């Protein structure tokens, strides 16, 4: 196979390494002497860190990437350092939020329990968030191999520092220390890159312009990416830390579906610059979504078939219920392989996407709070799947009303409906007839 590491494939590999490391840490924890409650503390720690940073971190970086190329960061330009300043400032605001609302978070979300390892959490947010800039510097500089090497080294170090303490019989606190130390390593790597490629001179004009450009993206990221955190907040409000760990271990979307769908969507956007090729772009979306569905749907079906056997083996018997949550999240493929948002972004009709995300959040909260009364943990997952499908339906209606494109213009409707129904049927048989 003549595989070449490109910018896109390097970032894909980096994210897969990161995802695999988090999964392996979870597996190692379940095989160690840690209790389910201690594992829940670790999951709560990561959950809180992500909840206060995911939207502005992704928004600021994604807002920066379209304006960045090798020329813009050449000759010791201060651009990279100023992005670093922004990320650090927002990290400080996230820490301030946690400190100011510590009691509210503990009382309303953690059933009166203290935020686990608050001092380490503060350090982790301050250090790890700005360090996320490293891989994107390599992306801008078209240094894909270096990105993969960096990812391999940093996540192997993270795995060792986090997993080794419980293996040696130490408490979960030492794993938190290891997590912070691995983030320090990433931050030092970032500082080396910054001083080699940028100037530390503040540029307030750049900062103002970047904030103006990135703020709508930050808000959009907050709306579209908060579903998993809404699920987590609902779970922590109804159940204890051990049950939260069971949910978190199952609430993992099939990464290949998310990764390949997002990569394809992004790769199509430049083609919309030439309006004369609009029809061919729609046909390309139709053909490629058909190809993705041809093998991603069956692969999701295989995972659904073996999940109830695999979860107790990979983790332990305490996480048997996680398999049902995982199977529900596999159904997200039904919405992931729909691409009306690609057309709207390409045609610069982004306001519709923001409103659809807002409606999706409302539906997610309403259905999750309703369904949890009937199905418990599974009800929250059902609410998320329904909300994601609802969002894509809204976007497809908007594409039809404002752009005049039929669904069949960019989707093989018969194939997608058939595969979706077969996967839902398999889910029903496995969850309600077999288990």
Question: What are the SSEs and their pairings?
Answer:
Elements: H1 7-31, H2 36-51, H3 54-64, H4 79-100, H5 102-109, H6 118-131, H7 134-140, H8 144-167, H9 172-197, H10 204-225, H11 227-238, H12 241-250, H13 255-268, H14 278-314, H15 322-330, H16 333-336, H17 340-346, H18 350-375, H19 377-403, H20 413-434
Helix pairs in contact: 1-7, 1-8, 2-6, 2-12, 3-4, 3-10, 4-6, 6-9, 7-8, 8-9, 10-18, 11-18, 11-19, 12-15, 13-14, 14-15, 14-20, 15-19, 17-19, 18-19
Account of the protein in words:
- With 435 residues, the protein is mainly alpha-helical.
- The protein folds into two domains: 7-225, no CATH class; 232-434, no CATH class.
- Helices cover 79% and strands 0% of the residues.
- The protein has 20 helices and no strands.
- α12 (241-250) runs parallel beside α15 (322-330).
- The longest helix has 37 residues, at 278-314.
- 39% of the residues are buried.
- The model has no long low-confidence stretch (mean pLDDT 85).
The portion of residues assigned to helices is over 70%
Strand content: under 5%
Helices and strands, in order, run as HHHHHHHHHHHHHHHHHHHH
Number of helices: 20
Helix/strand-derived class? mainly alpha
Give the overall pLDDT as a whole number.
85
Summarize the structure.
The protein is an all-alpha fold and 435 residues long. 79% of the residues lie in helices and 0% in strands. Helix 2 packs across helix 6 and helix 10 (204-225) packs parallel to helix 18.
């Amino acid at each position: 196979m003549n595989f070449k590491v490109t910018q896109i494939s390097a970032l894909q590999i980096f994210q897969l390494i990161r995802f695999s490391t988090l999964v392996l840490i979870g597996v190692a924890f379940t095989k160690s002497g840690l209790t389910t409650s201690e594992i829940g503390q670790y999951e709560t720690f990561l959950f809180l860190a992500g909840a206060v940073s995911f939207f502005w971190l992704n928004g600021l970086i994604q807002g920066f990437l379209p304006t960045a190329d090798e020329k813009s960061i050449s000759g010791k330009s201060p651009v990279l350092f100023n992005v670093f300043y922004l990320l650090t400032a927002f990290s400080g605001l996230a820490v301030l939020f946690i400190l100011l609302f510590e009691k509210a978070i503990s009382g309303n979300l953690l059933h009166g329990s203290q935020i686990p390892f608050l001092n380490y959490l503060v350090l982790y947010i301050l250090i790890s968030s700005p360090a996320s800039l490293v891989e994107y510097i390599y992306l801008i500089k078209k240094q894909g191999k270096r990105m993969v090497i960096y990812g391999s080294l940093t996540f192997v170090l993270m795995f060792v520092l986090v997993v080794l303490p419980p293996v040696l019989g130490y408490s979960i606190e030492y794993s938190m220390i290891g997590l912070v130390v691995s983030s320090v390593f990433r931050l030092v790597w970032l500082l080396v890159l910054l001083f080699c490629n940028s100037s530390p001179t503040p540029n307030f004009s750049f900062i103002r312009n970047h904030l103006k450009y990135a703020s709508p993206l930050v808000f959009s990221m907050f709306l579209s990416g908060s579903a998993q955190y809404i699920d987590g907040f609902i779970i922590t409000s109804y159940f204890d830390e051990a049950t939260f760990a069971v949910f978190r271990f199952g609430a993992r979307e099939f990464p290949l579906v998310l990764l390949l769908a997002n990569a394809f969507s992004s790769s199509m956007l430049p083609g919309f610059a030439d309006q004369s090729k609009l029809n061919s772009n729609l046909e390309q979306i139709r053909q490629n979504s058909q190809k993705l569905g041809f093998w991603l749907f069956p692969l999701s079906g295989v995972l659904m078939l073996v999940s109830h056997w695999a979860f107790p083996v990979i983790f332990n018997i305490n996480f048997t219920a996680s398999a049902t949550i995982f199977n529900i999240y596999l159904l997200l493929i039904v919405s992931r392989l729909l691409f009306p948002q690609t057309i709207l972004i390409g045609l610069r009709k982004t306001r519709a996407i923001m409103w659809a995300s807002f409606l999706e959040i409302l539906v997610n909260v309403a259905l999750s709070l309703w369904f949890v009364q009937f199905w418990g943990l599974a009800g929250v997952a059902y609410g998320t799947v329904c909300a994601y499908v609802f969002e894509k339906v809204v976007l497809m209606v908007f594409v039809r009303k404002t752009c005049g494109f039929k669904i069949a213009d960019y989707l093989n409707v018969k194939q997608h409906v058939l595969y979706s129904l077969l996967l839902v049927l398999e889910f029903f048989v496995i969850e309600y007839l077999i288990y």
